[in-house]
Design brief:
Helix content is 34%, strand content 27%. The protein is an alpha+beta fold. The protein starts with a helix and ends in a 5-residue tail after the last strand.
Length: 212
C-alpha cells in the first residue's frame, strides 16, 4: 500500500474511534491510540507540515488533548526553538485539527522552562580570588590551567578565555568575558598592578613600583 492509502485508512479508523469518545478532555486511556492514528494520517491535513512539523513528533508529546467535534485540539512543546541559540525555554503551541475539513491550524500559547537557568555568574568573586592569589604569589587549585603565567615576580599574564570558557551562547560568553576583563583590570590596579600590554586575548600586568 502507498503512504496515502495507509493515511486514508488511518483517518477512517480515527473517525470511527472518535465516534466512541466523549466530548471534552480525552482520557489517558484513549489518548495514546488516538495520537497514534493521528500521527499516521497527519500528511492528509492541510497545514500539518507548517513550521517543520511532522506526524511522528506527536507521539509521546501531546498534552491536554480535547475532542470537540469535529475538532481535536492539543498542546505540544516545540523543543527546536529552545535548542537554537541555547535558550532554556520551549515554545508551547496549541494545535487544532479539523477531522471533517482536514485542516490544521496552530498558534503559540506560551513558553515553558525546559532546563534550570544557570546560577548567576559571579565575575566579581572570581576576579577577587585571582587578584588575591596574584598578590600573595599563591597557587589557586581552582584556577584553570594556563589562565595565569608569570615572567619574574613583577609581571603576570592572564588569559580570560581560560577562566571563561566557550560554554553557552556566544553573546553570553562574550558578555561574561568583557565583564571579567573590566573587573580584572580595575581589581589589579587597586592591588598595585597596571595593565601594560593587551596581546589579543591576553592581558599583561606589571607591579607598580610603589607596591614593591
Amino acid at each position: 500500500m502507498t503512504e496515502w492509502t495507509v493515511a486514508n485508512n488511518e483517518l477512517t479508523e480515527l473517525r470511527t474511534f472518535l465516534e466512541t469518545v466523549p466530548k471534552g478532555p480525552v482520557s489517558q486511556g484513549h489518548c495514546d491510540q488516538m495520537v497514534d492514528c493521528l500521527a499516521r494520517c497527519w500528511p492528509l491535513f492541510a497545514g500539518g507540515s507548517e513550521a517543520g512539523f511532522e506526524g511522528y513528533k506527536l507521539r509521546g508529546r501531546v498534552e491536554k488533548l480535547r475532542w470537540w467535534p469535529p475538532v481535536l485540539s492539543f498542546e505540544i512543546v516545540r523543543h527546536g526553538a529552545a535548542v537554537i541559540g541555547g535558550s532554556t525555554r520551549g515554545e508551547v503551541q496549541t494545535w487544532q485539527v479539523d477531522i471533517k475539513s482536514l485542516k490544521v491550524q496552530h498558534f503559540q500559547s506560551s513558553y515553558r522552562q525546559l532546563e534550570k537557568n544557570d546560577a548567576r555568574w559571579n565575575h566579581k568573586a572570581i576576579v577577587q580570588k585571582m587578584v588575591d592569589c596574584i598578590v600573595a604569589d599563591a597557587v589557586d587549585q581552582f584556577t584553570p590551567a594556563g589562565a595565569i603565567s608569570w615572567a619574574g615576580s613583577d609581571e603576570v599574564t592572564i588569559v580570560p578565555s581560560r577562566v571563561v570558557p566557550q560554554l553557552g551562547p556566544s553573546p553570553t560568553v562574550s558578555g561574561r568575558r568583557e565583564r571579567f576583563r573590566e573587573e580584572l583590570i580595575a581589581g589589579m590596579k587597586d592591588a598595585g598592578w597596571d595593565l601594560t600590554v593587551l596581546k589579543g586575548v591576553k592581558l599583561v600586568f606589571q607591579k607598580q613600583r610603589s607596591f614593591g
